[in-house]
Amino acid sequence: MKLTSRARFSTVCLHAGQDPDPATGAIITPIYQTSTYVQEALGRHKGFEYARTQNPTRMALERNLAAIEGGKAAFAFASGMAAIGAIATLLQSGDHVVVSDNTYGGTFRLFDKVLRRYQLSFTYVDTSKLDEVERAFTKTTRMLFVETPTNPVMRLTDLRAAADLAHSHDVRLVVDNTFASPYVQRPIELGADIVTHSTTKYLNGHSDSVGGIAIAQRDDDIEWLKFVQNAEGAILGPFDSWLVLRGTKTLPLRMQQHNANGLALAQFLCAHAKVKHVYYPGLPSHPQHELATRQMRGFGGMLAFELGSLEAARRLLNTVKLHALAESLGGVETLISHPATMTHASVPADRRQALGITDGLVRISAGIEDIEDLKDDLGQALDAV
Ligand SMILES: *Cc1c(COP(=O)(O)O)cnc(C)c1O
Fold first, then answer.
1. Is residue 63 annotated as part of the catalytic site, yes or no?
2. Is 124 a catalytic residue?
3. Does the predicted model carry a pTM greater than 0.85?
């Protein structure tokens, strides 16, 4: 199973990083559940010494995900937050970071409550407006941290333009690509220096593992991330690595269905009298629909819609049957949630209001069920509103 450099996306997802097991020929990379490796003689070993530093299952996943994102190397961590924490160690005390203003809540918490204690500073701006990003840059800015689309109002950032702007100021562009997945969006091709994912979401895709990945392109970043992965030790375990490897084999197929169901649900909700507004980049009414068409392949499985009041949202969320009321996203099952009281409850009310996260806003992570069943379920729940 030698991949040529021309191998297309689905082939890369299936095969990259995975050779048949050298001991047995097993087609699937085994779960190397071991803590150490026996050495042949003093100073002579097979390149494996201790499992925090090297694990064949994790290394297969890292090569797989580096190839999928088009990066040079990848490093797998125990969670998406651990990956972002490791990326943040590229910074030194006194450095400044510009961040998308409605970045994932856990990222905001890490930056605001933990990393500010180490003399790092963060400015939150609407990165869909690159003139505001440029105004936020200072002499000490070292990183532009972007999420696109954002959660839950689906605002986009033009990644190519953001990369050009960052590089003209000698700033790294880091993209959290969790919401889109590498099927939908490939930030490194657009100029990003580092891409990160919570593999918990689309990459694993089956709601049964928590993990994170950092994919890098610059040699100095690769060297540091490799060092810090071992030094801090927040590695992804072999079983979770194996689960994510299993997930990426079907990433293209799953994403095609997430894209199709996301678009169909957005259109269904858009045409419904009780829905006041739908946030989905695939709708022509989305203010950045043109950018979405250019930058994304399909428009993803995430959407949000406005019902006007907390009471209306409560009615809907308590009446759905097939849609599971839960945080998280990117799994094969459709999830529905209420950002204001669930994922964004820790965001101060005035900030929520400014971001458009109202009490009547509902978010859906479209799964891969039959679309007619999803529409039936939403339809009957909207009748109760
Ligand atoms: C879930 C998520 C994270 C954090 O990942 P964990 O695996 O939960 O630690 C980071 N960014 C985004 C966009 C996410 O959705």
1. no
2. no
3. yes
DSSP string covering 201-225: TTTT-SS----EEEEE-SHHHHHHH
In the chain, where are the structural domains located? Answer: 9-249, 252-383
104 Cα–ligand 1 center, Å: 7
CA distance 95 to 303: 35
Ligand 1 proximity of 104 Cβ (cutoff 6 Å): yes
The yes/no answer on whether domain 252-383 falls in CATH 3.90.1150.10 is: yes
The proportion of the chain whose per-residue pLDDT surpasses 70, expressed as a percent, equals 100
Q: Tell me: the pLDDT tens digits for 277-288?
A: 999 999 999 999
| Distance, CA of 205 to CA of 335 (rounded, Å) | 13
pLDDT for position 1: 63
Active site residue 19: no
Per the CB < 8 A criterion, the answer to whether 208 and 242 are in contact is: no
The topology (CATH level 3) of 9-249 is Aspartate Aminotransferase; domain 2 (3.40.640)
Instruction: Establish whether residue 147 lines the binding site of ligand 1, counting it when its CB lies within 6 angstroms of any ligand atom.
Output: yes
Asked if pLDDT for residue 351 goes beyond 90, the answer is: no
Is 75 close to ligand 1, i.e. is its CB under 6 Å away? no
Work out the pLDDT band at 348, boundaries 50, 70, 90. Answer: confident
The pLDDT tens digits of the residues spanning 204-231 come to 999 999 999 999 999 999 999 999 999 9
How many whole angstroms from 198 Cα to the centroid of ligand 1?
A: 5
Q: Which atom of ligand 1 is nearest to the CA of 200?
A: 7
Contact residues for 332 (Cβ-Cβ < 8 A; gap 6+): 205, 206, 207, 254, 367, 368
Answer yes or no: 176 catalytic.
yes
